[in-house]
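#random but structural
TW: two for the price of one
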Amino acid sequence: MSDLRDIQLSLPMQLLQAREAAMAHFRPMLRKHGLTEQQWRVIRVLANEPTLEVSELVARSLLLAPSLSRILSHLEAEGLVARSAHAGDQRRSLLTLTAAGQKKFRAVGPDSEALYEDIEARFGRKKLATLYQLLAELNEAIELAEETE
């Protein structure tokens, strides 16, 4: 018999379950706008940081480079993202939202916020704020532990 904790007390399993519950709430809205969750993540990051290098976008979007490459190809083909060469280093690319990408962001944003409001109404604004704070603290504690190993 294993000395492992019950699967319901497994932090990775609980986080995955919470992620799936949240994304099940958002996916239909994203589909309505013709986006995947990863595409929306890229658009959201670029909406907040108007020009980013690919490596910065990888870090901020929490996507793996090969996945991001495919997503960017699609978003460029759709005219939502533009790529340009870095002035100081032609090997580096800079990414920006196009006017169409900004329009898409403005179209999806209100629907996204409505879903957040629904989650707040169901879960509670204060509890959601506490959850965000606790998750930030958990991330910080884990990152700090990894740095000291």
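TW: number two ↓
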Amino acid sequence: MKLRHLKYFLAVAEELNFTKASEKLFISQPPLSRQIAELEEELQAKLFIRNNKKVELTEAGKYFEKEVKALFQNLEHISLKTRKIAENISGEFRIAYISSIYSSVISELIKHLKAQFPYVNFKLFEISTTKQIDALEQGKIEMGIIRSPIQSPKIKSHLWFKDGFSLVYNKKSFQIKSENDILKLKDETFVFFNKDYAPHYHEVLLELCAFYGFTPKIIHEANNINSIVQLVKNGLGISIVPSNIAKNNQDSEIGFIELKKVNLFTNVSIIISKEDDSEITKTAVDFLLNKSSSR
């Protein structure tokens, strides 16, 4: 039994017409009929009922069609996995991250991976959490770094670290000494992440403000954490950002106050495909998880 026999069989099974099937396969009808006859002879089973009016699958043919389709799907999966294994030697590895977690650790990760896999082309993309999930499910990226939660049967996640929250303000505009001063800012303008861009994160910030007894007056919104910090620096408002940002920002004009009284955190997670067991992915995940203890 040859692979072409199975392809020819599926074409006829899908079209239920030898003429249309032969056109689809770019062969004439007599050779197609011979191939099907050879297949039936080898299987010792009649797959089609043929008469002048129509072509139908027999019960054996229906079963064979289902199994052959599954066989081709498995073959496609094997081919994809083979390519993934080959990409450990050469190829492309795409990593996505959200703007609020970029730090020197990401740069260290790329350097580490380049040393381990010198012929791989590593690419970084700044993408929102929801778009990362879609991209990973569609095979457009190999790994993502997001703020949880995540709900996808196709994705496996590893908790990287828990991130708290910090108030960020312009030191020239505000004199803030401690977390207790936050209520004084209730009438000030706030700069937040866009609700549509990061809905869960937006809700967490509103919940955090409610804990301190006020509803923020949100005047400006942005889709990038660096844009938010820049707007705060320019005196256009104050904001609440992940504490991870404070650790990686050395700007003397900006102040950060960690909000420790509220028991709210966001989980920063590494996400990969459940079917991805390549060496390069394992190396990347292990590197970040080992770094999490030093955060």
